[in-house]
Specification:
Elements (H helix, E strand, L loop, with lengths): L1 H17 L12 H19 L2 E8 L4 E4 L3 E5 L8 E6 L3 E8 L2 E5 L5 E5 L3 E4 L56 H16 L6 E2 L1 H17 L12 H7 L6 E9 L2 H9 L2 H7 L6 E9 L3 E10 L3
Parallel strand pairs: 9-11
Antiparallel strand pairs: 1-10, 2-5, 2-8, 3-4, 5-6, 6-7, 10-12, 11-12
């Protein structure tokens, strides 16, 4: 009897050892927990959007200048030791062909080439002139010989400018534009910052605004975030191809969920803040486009021009 009991006990122990262990059931996720996870994901996504900003700045080529002194001697070369070949008066506007040190190489109305000191003039933009030409039509840079003597005549520039490679046409004298609500809100925020810092408000340029919108849409369509577009090149190439004249230019980019957040992020970044508060800029254009990745793409284009 004792042997039978031991045998039954041993068989029971074997079955107990081979039986699968039953894990305690996990508590089902409550709707409240699921909502919290979604909120956390959205918070992370919003944080990612707030980090997308970029800025760039360029000093443009001087193509025209206005005389700011009572008279300005035009020298045969870039230096005061050259003979005076003509004299310009205050507010005369001349075409600039090149810069040699602190001197402007200029072309007079009679096509004679000379040089004036940069301290006697200020760069300006002449609307509707000097549109970007194909390379084959661009006037060659005036070269000086070893004595810094300039040639007496320069080849006359072609009179007929061709349409740019992107088949776009500029709108001359574009100084006002009807903006969307977000674009106008961003312009107002920029000008509020400038006013607080003793700077003049920027004027909306409708052509710059149009180009900014095209750039924002291009970033959405081609899924990139960069100043360099696979379609248009740099923002400065793009402006020139659209016929926009400038002395200085800059671009700020932001990917964010709202105008306020984008503006705050830009102002907290030194490069972007420098563009927004630059005394060198006079006009602005804003482009805003919806983006699945960022919420919205914001393109701020700045230019400086004096007439």
């Amino acid at each position: 009897m004792k042997k039978i009991y031991i045998l039954i006990l041993a068989i029971g122990m074997i079955f107990s050892a081979c039986s699968p262990t039953v894990e305690p059931q996990q508590k089902p996720t409550t709707p409240q927990q699921g909502a919290t996870k979604q909120q956390q994901n959205k918070k992370v996504q919003d944080q990612d959007r707030e980090t997308q900003e970029s800025s760039i700045f360029e000093v443009g080529e001087v193509r025209n200048c206005r005389i700011t002194t009572e008279s300005a001697p035009v020298k045969a070369g870039a230096g005061n030791n050259f003979n005076t070949v003509a004299t310009l008066n205050r507010d005369d506007v001349v075409k600039v062909l090149d810069q040699v040190g602190s001197w402007y190489v200029i072309q007079l109305d009679n096509n004679q080439v000379g040089a004036i000191e940069g301290t006697n003039a200020t760069p300006i933009v002449k609307e509707g002139e000097n549109k970007e030409l194909p390379k084959a039509q661009q006037p060659q840079t005036i070269k000086q010989n070893q004595t810094n003597q300039l040639p007496k005549q320069a080849a006359q520039q072609p009179q007929q400018n061709q349409r740019t490679q992107n088949n776009v046409q500029a709108t001359p004298n574009a100084t006002t534009a009807k903006l969307g609500s977000q674009e106008q809100q961003m312009v107002d925020l920029v000008n509020r910052e400038r006013t607080k810092n003793g700077l003049s408000a920027l004027t909306v340029d409708s052509e710059v605004a149009r180009v900014a919108g095209i750039k924002a849409q291009d970033m959405v369509d081609k899924d990139y975030f960069s100043h360099y577009s696979p379609t248009y090149g740099s923002p400065f190439d793009m402006m020139k191809n659209f016929g926009i004249e400038y002395l200085t230019a800059g671009e700020n980019l932001a990917g964010n969920s709202s105008v306020e957040k984008a503006h705050e992020a830009l102002m907290n970044s030194s490069g972007h803040r420098q563009n927004i508060l630059s005394p060198d800029f006079t006009h602005i254009g804003i482009g805003v486009r919806p983006s699945e990745k960022y919420g919205y793409i914001y393109t701020q284009m700045f230019i400086g021009k004096r007439k």
